[in-house]
Amino acid sequence: MSKISVAAVRESVRAVQNASEEKKRKFTETVELQIGLKNYDPQRDKRFSGTVKLPNIPRPKMTVCILGDAFHCDQAKAAGLEYMSVDDLKKLNKNKKLIKKLGTFSFDFTREQRHKIETSPISFPSHHHFISSAKKYDAFLASEALIKQIPRLLGPGLHKAGKFPTPVTHADDLVAKADELRATIKFQLKKVLCLGVAVGHVAMTEDELLGNIMLSINFLVSLLKKNWQNVKSLFIKSTMGKPQRLY
Q1: What's the pLDDT at 42?
Q2: What is the predicted pLDDT for the residue at 115?
Q3: Labelling 99: which of 139, 189, 236, 245 has CA 20 to 30 A away?
């Protein structure tokens, strides 16, 4: 049973959105759910991990790349999705620096690191140009037939970065699969008792944000060993806004 009311969350959502309206930014602010845990020992207790698909896409600009066979590359091209073929992956295999970047580009860069990447002479095939322009891919889809080849072609980089591709079959709709990835969030306890996950953005409607937040909280609590007894605090916060306490 939830310990926070829909009315209380709605009030906090309004506060976040009103503050964003009052001080417009040049970008769409992300709304993050911030969680503080208690009565948990990351060293001794089992570390939880779980994913849930939200009813409304929280990260519409999340970049997805298709690692595809000939069929999926054609499908991706027709749908306007970015992709890499087996030949492209084999070219990466000949350059360890590219493979390393491929496994780490999903992290935040400092200004100096970003400049080095942007000015690097190393580049991908011209129709992808995602390292030379410092473009970051947040997730991958890969043809089912290619999944087993990924570690051999690229090494452990994507797996270590938590970006190992989701398999797709020829019967799957690539656009729908990409949107499914954009709608899916992950809760994972590591070494500290605080978590943060994007649950929406300020351009969403109040009800859309509310639905995402409530589902996210209830799913998180279901992952915890003692449910609500492990929850110390809950906040929602826009990128540039003040945090609003929910619990």
Answers
A1: 84
A2: 47
A3: 189
* Local structure of residue 39 (DSSP, 8 states): S
Say whether both 137 and 74 belong to one domain.
yes
CA–CA separation, 202 and 216 (whole Å): 17
Q: Is the pTM above the cut of 0.85?
A: no
Q: Do residues 130 and 81 lie in contact, with contact meaning Cβ atoms separated by under 8 Å?
A: no
Residues 241 and 148 in one domain: no
Partnered with residue 234 across adjacent β-strands are 35
* CATH code of residue 23: 3.30.190.20
Over residues 94-142, the pLDDT tens digits come to 555 665 555 444 333 344 444 443 444 433 333 333 333 224 688 899 9
Q: How far apart are CA 67 and CA 181, in angstroms?
A: 15
Count Cα neighbours of 32 within 13 Å in the Cβ-side half-sphere: 15
- The structure tokens listed for 231 are 């929850």
In whole angstroms, give the CA distance from residue 203 to residue 208.
10
Helix (H) or strand (E) holding 114: helix 111-118
Query: Is residue 56 a part of any domain in this protein?
Result: no
Q: What pLDDT does residue 32 have?
A: 96
Q: Residues near 223 by Cβ (< 8 Å), separated by ≥ 6?
A: 48, 49, 50, 187
| Whole-number pLDDT of residue 122 | 38
